[in-house]
Amino acid sequence: MLRLALGILRSRPSSFAGLAAALLLAVTVITLFGSLIATAIDGGGGSRLGLIGGAFGEIAMLMALFVVANTLALAVRQQARAMALLRTTGATPAQIKRLVRCQVLLVTLFVSPPAWLMGSWGARWFLTELVARDIAPAGAAVSWSAGPPLIGTAATLLVGVGATKIAARRTVRGRPSAALAQTTEQGRTGWLRTIAGLLVLGGAVPLVVFTSRQPVDKSVQIALLGTLLLMIAVGLLGPLLARLAMALLGLPFRLSGARHRGEAGGALAADNLRGHAHRLSSAVVPIALLVGLSTTFAAVTATLEQVAPPGAYARSDIWLRGVELAMLAGFGAVATVNTLASLTVARRREYALLTLTGATRRQLMRMLGTEAALTASAGVLLGIAVAAPMSMAFSVAATGSPVPVVPLQTYGPLVLGSVALTVLTILVTGARATSEPALSAVAAP
Q: What is the pLDDT of residues 311-343, one digit of tens each?
């Protein structure tokens, strides 16, 4: 099975680029913050370094592993047709799952060495900046240890293998004779997934109340963890939320399409997205992740600036929040680009069929532009909805008011940047996908 997995990776390396990037980030951040914690344990950086490494590490690790699970699920769905063909030739469900696990193993081992180097360099740079700001003692240096890199690879691989069971379940279930037909269908959101999403969402409610009653220094990290918890709920309920968002956002386009039957690209895009809620959910969740975390960080940082006393400690704490915001925004941006590019390229057969039925490339690009705008809007709305409860709870804890401080000079570029990133990724990738001859695209596997 390892040989088959290696052959697939060699024949289609671009199909696994997004998964490789996600795994690379996960191993890197665990190595980085694990190295800082190991240094603190060895007594080389002071007790505060351990607290910073732990606080930063848990947020970064949870987000990185969330991105890994989401990207892996997308990678498995993109191989659904190939896996269905394998099943019709006699492959068992257990063999298909083993194949995916072997793919995750090989990609993780491939990206681990550069991730170790990046994580070690990042730990040294971060500690140098902490020393320069008197957050860590002068002369502190990262203690090299094989533990953090190995733990980073092992933890990432463990999450990848666990996510494989969930991602491959839909692909391998059912009779082999029906497996190929299932690749063209959009399944419904399972009741187990829906119940899990509602339970996670319900569990966030007492966390919001708890956050609002904590001291400022404690409520900061709880607010960030609560935002990630809400993101998990959005990931589980993604298809339902995406369908609801598109029903509302797509209404003006459908009305416009009814009036102007000759130029109904917007209506086609809205109906197409609403009809493929699972695919839309895969595109919207990374955008919501980027916007939600960025919004929470912007609100927390601005509120801290308002309530923090003057002095070096307050400035250093705000700097730390800025670094954390930049780091997680980078993770969100990578996840967004990987997901959107993969989803757009995977639809090249769809574009080719539309071309063969009479659609022009201009109409296809107009449809893609509208889809990009709708997808970005849905992601921004869900992201703001995710950020609002914990941002308001932190504001209550810090100022007594449920209205957080959100600086437009920081928040505006974050939202506009997310929208621009979404639109540009879809349009650039779509332009390449639609440039392929229609007959060749239809015949491609």
A: 555 677 777 877 877 777 777 787 788 888 887
Per-residue tokens: 442:
């239809």
Nearest to 394 by CA among 272, 303, 262: 303
- Quote the tokens at residue 203: 């569990």
What Å distances lie between residue 171 and 89, 141, 204, CA to CA? 15, 48, 31
Distance (Å, whole) CA 109 – CA 392: 42
342-346, long-range: CB within 8 Å, 24+ apart, which pairs? Answer: 342/15, 342/18, 342/74, 342/75, 342/78, 343/74, 343/279, 343/282, 343/283, 344/368, 344/425, 344/426, 344/429, 344/430, 344/433, 345/429, 345/432, 345/433, 346/78
Rounded to two decimals, the pTM is 0.77
Cβ atoms of residues 102 and 5 within 8 Å: yes
Q: In the numeric block, which tokens belong to residue 343?
A: 């989803």
User: Sorting pLDDT into bands at 50, 70 and 90, what band is 262?
Assistant: very low
| Helices 238-249 and 251-259, packing angle to 10 deg | 40
Residue with tokens 């279930």: 173
Amino acid residing at 135: I
Side-chain-facing half-sphere of 265: CA atoms under 13 Å: 17
Report the C-alpha gap between 44 and 136 in whole angstroms. 9
